[in-house]
Each structure stands twice: as C-alpha cells, then as structure tokens.
Specification:
Length: 180
C-alpha cells in the first residue's frame, strides 16, 4: 500500500509539474484536473473495487454457455481484462472528464480547483480519495453481505407479487434458483 501511495504522490506531482497560480484557460485547467482524477492509480483502484462484480458477471456469461470457470481462472481473466480496459480508458476518461468539467464548472471554479489540487493539501486529498475508495469498497461489500439475506427475501416477495406477475414460471423459477 505504501508503494501504491508513493506512486500516487508521484503521479499527482507530475500532473501539476510546472503549474502556476495564473492558468492560461479553462480547458487547460479542466484537462490538468482530469489528468489527476483519471490517473492510472485512480483507475486501478476504481477497477479493483469493481473486480468482484466483474468476476461474477464473467462467471455468469460463461455459465450461460455451459462453461464453468475456476476461481483462479475467473480472477485471472478479470484482472487481465480490467488491466486492458484501464490502458484504453485512461486517455478517453481524461478527454471525457475535461469536456464534462467545462460544462459543469466556470473558468474561475476550474482555476480554483486546479490551484487547490496543486497544493500539498490538494495532493493529499487526491491520495486520500484513493485510500477512501479502497476502504469504502471493502466496507460496502461487508454491509451488502450482511444485508443480503433480507434483501433476497424482499426480492423474492416482490417477484412473487404484483411486480413479478409478468414473469413466466420458468423465468421466476430461474431467478429464484439463482438467488439460493
């Protein structure tokens, strides 16, 4: 984790190398902010928090084809797939976030956000977000696991009620068997 945070500090510092209090324009500010918020480290944490759901999705897709994957195979496949997605999405995410920021924030707000992120506190904030995302994902999984029995019970009740009356018996049986 320490190495990961050190890499994050380097990424944040590099993203703002040469920055100054007076910035050229809103697009430049939005791009600089986006490069930090969609950094490789942030995407890595984001994807790692999604990996559990991704593995389940992969297993489900293969199961529909009659193929059962071992835990190791599903995990390896998911890790490789998410690595490849991160490599492709990095630049795309920066471009997308830049455009969204230009719509969402004024030039003054973008300059202020960039100025904050260039400070030690701003860099600590970005790195803190990485740690908080990781911890939030772990805690969220624990909360979801604890709530799952009552959630499943409620889902079954609702599927058997008016909300599920359009389901065929086969669909209902299939859904119910997946939740066991």
């Amino acid at each position: 984790m320490k190495t990961f945070l050190a890499a994050g500090v380097a990424a944040v510092s590099m993203a703002f190398a040469g920055g100054s209090a007076a910035h050229a324009d809103a697009r430049e500010d939005a791009r600089a902010i986006s490069e930090v918020l969609a950094s490789e480290e942030i995407l890595e944490v984001t994807f790692s928090t999604m990996s559990g759901m991704f593995v389940q999705s992969i297993r489900g897709a293969f199961a529909q084809s009659g193929v059962s994957l071992s835990n190791e195979t599903a995990d390896t496949f998911a890790e490789i797939m998410l690595d490849e997605l991160a490599a492709v999405l990095g630049a795309e995410m920066v471009d997308m976030q830049t455009e969204l920021m230009l719509v969402q924030f004024s030039a003054t707000e973008l300059a202020d956000i960039r100025a904050f992120l260039e400070t030690e506190s701003g860099q600590a904030f970005v790195l803190g977000q990485v740690a908080m995302m990781t911890e939030s994902a772990a805690r969220g999984e624990q909360i979801a696991a604890a709530a799952m029995p009552s959630v499943l019970q409620n889902v079954v009740s609702r599927l058997r009620g008016a909300e599920g009356e359009h389901l065929s018996e086969v669909e209902l049986s299939t859904l119910l068997s997946l939740m066991r």
